[in-house]
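Form 7-S
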Amino acid sequence: MALPVAWLVQRVDLITKFIAVRISVHNSFTGFPSLIAAPTSSCSSTTINLGTILNSLKEKADFSSAPTSNQINICRDYTGNVYNLLKSSLQAFGCRCFNPMARLDVVFVDGEDNAEGYGQPPPPATLEEVSNVSFKAKLLKCHTHANNLSICIHPHTHTHRHTHTLAPSLTPLHTHRSPVLSFLLSGLACGRWCRMSWSVWILCVCFGAFTGASRALAEGSRSTERNCSAVPPYLPPTAVNTTLRLQALRDVMREQNITAYIIPGTDAHLSEYIAPRDARVAFMSGFTGSAGTAVVTLTKATLWTDSRYWVQAERQMDCNWELVRDVSIHSITDWLIREVEEGKEIGFDPYVFSVKTFNFYNINLSPASRNLMSIPANLVDKVWTNRPPLPPDNLVRLPDNIIERTWLEKVKHIRNIMKENPYQPTAVLLSALDETAWLFNLRGNDIPYNPFFYSYTLVTTDEIWLFVHTARVPDDLKTYLNATCYTPDCVQLIEYGNERNLLKSYLLRPNTRVWVGTEYTNQALYELIPEDKLMTSDYSPVLTTKAVKDPTEQRILRDAHVRDAVAVMELLIWLEKSVPGGKETELTAAHYVNERRSKQNFSRGPSFETISASGPNAALAHYSPSEGTSRALTVNEMYLVDSGGQYLDGTTDITRTVHWGTPTDFQKEAFTRVLMGNIDISRNIFPDGTRGINMEMLGRRALWEVGLNYGHGTGHGVGNYFGVHEWPVGFQSNNIPFKEGMFTSIEPGYYKENDFGIRIEDVAVLVPVQTPYGNNFLTFDTVSLVPYDRKLIDTSIMSPQQLQWLDRYYQTIRDKMGPELERQGLKEVHDWMMEHTKPFQTTSASAPICSLSLLLYLIPTALLHHFL
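Output:
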């Protein structure tokens, strides 16, 4: 008996926490002759009370605890051999009458019904048949109210004494309750007929728990993710049938005489956000995540993506596709070398390959004699018969009152930079969409969340070529751009799609040299330029110039953040009042903040898809809710909201993390250390020209001190009615040095897997600062104006300097937001803001200093009195 008992003791915590149900027993078990063979000399009829068994188990485990991912993984590891182990253990210790082929009927009755009201029972089944998914699905349909659950095990009749009510608590496994309990009861029924010790009875409970839980896990996974190893393969309703698409693409591949075709998840301008018509990975595979590369051969189709999207890929792809849990180009090229014969051609669209991406592929494939073939006409587009069209919206110009530099002044400035460059470029090629939009003070509506339009520009010393869909340029813009003349200050409008041919023609001219920024120039244009006519830098002079905002851009971007803060405060107040009612979700919160922003002046919609995440969802740094994933908001969990708005005068991005109940000590410490990192960067003073990477560790230092960290960047540039992630500003190694007038986010965080996430994000502008001994020093001036959650701040671990900065920041919020909230007539929001921006340091903090000063004053006086 020692071996089974030791085995149970080691696993009882795991078993009971995994089930995580409280069971109340209303009746004791009586005989179930059909379940097992007739009693023998070793198996006599005995009445066993289930409550007694479970009470004895409580000494070893807490039934109120929810399962953890590690426990679930362990369960999955063990359940493979548990059936045989328990069966042999039961037989060895007295349960020789176990009969897995006995008949078993199970009827689920809603708690509001009585024992008479069984309804139509499901067909009988054996213990082996109960594990069948379709049979369990029928059982699940029998209880929909999830109140009390009655399980009746019987031979042929439905009698009251066969009814036993089990009341499971609502747990994360509530959708799998039925198979768990039915198998649990099966194990107990086996033991009922056997003369066994208590340890073997507990083994019966284990048998039911392991069997039911493993079946439940299999069923739950099966319902949401594909199972291509099943016979027949199982596909969830979210999967996309790609058979015909792959067949059509392979037909085109054969025409091109290529063996494989690479499909990156970007567009011809290497944009972070792409239009629906450029979502080629999604069309071919069904996978809609923002990061992924697909490769199709004549016999296989494979997707590479990172850990954020593994579950999503399994839900959206059919069994034509394999998933590789990696994103490195090295992994893709290794796969291609295995799958493609030596000397065969691998096709790609150079428009969706950056210069660096092409070089990485080429360096890995060329030595293996696998050849890359550039095919400028995208093959996916050839088979995408219902490809979304271009938006019909015309281009628009920015109003004069929100711009300081005209497009003519900007062009002149860029030409001066070209003249001053020692390599004497004769032209600058602009490929990123925000480059052309900034240069001409134009905006469009081609890309979600970004006011961009498809375009290229070639600025030469005496010409300006703008490649754009000319039908969407109205007459007033043609006049604005001087599009009817041919002098150096006239813009020649050329139809988008002709950029390769026109660039070739320009390169035929003598003494030409084209300057390209390699970070955003695609291979399709880069491969046309001979080396002797090429000049490169990481970023074009337009991107580096745009990064420094002029005084007007700084002013209006600050103004946009004031109005944006109103909407975020309205969200936080609304959630404080409504979340305790239990009706709000991640999705309703995301919709609410977008709706409040839409009411502010100059609103042009959100700047990205709102990250509204509670509890474990917030531990996913880039999670956004959907109808299938949105969780209810509760006072017992932390909530993270990362959102932003597009306004005619600026782009915003802000993250706040809150808790409506009582946070744990660890949650408070983690939040405070994230805040300390934000403050340490924000109050930093450094020489003009310092790179962000050189101070990035300040955002992590408070976390590092206790062994915590975060896995994303610490900040990025922000534009004026542009992209919310505006390169090349930020804290990464490939960002340019900081200069006065740049705007960047500061956003340290911490994420505890399957539990909670914290991020505090503010936007700040680089401003000059006076120092006692040196000039040309900078610091950050925070322009986001929403207070942090006070109940999550532990001031005891913060330095006086950090608290001083925090109080000054809160005073700034009062100074700037008070008048705006009064102007908008939002008294409730104003009162909330005043309450949440109370200073942390009070005059009492200086009392010891004042008392000490008084003491030092009085002591000499007293001594003088004494000696006189």
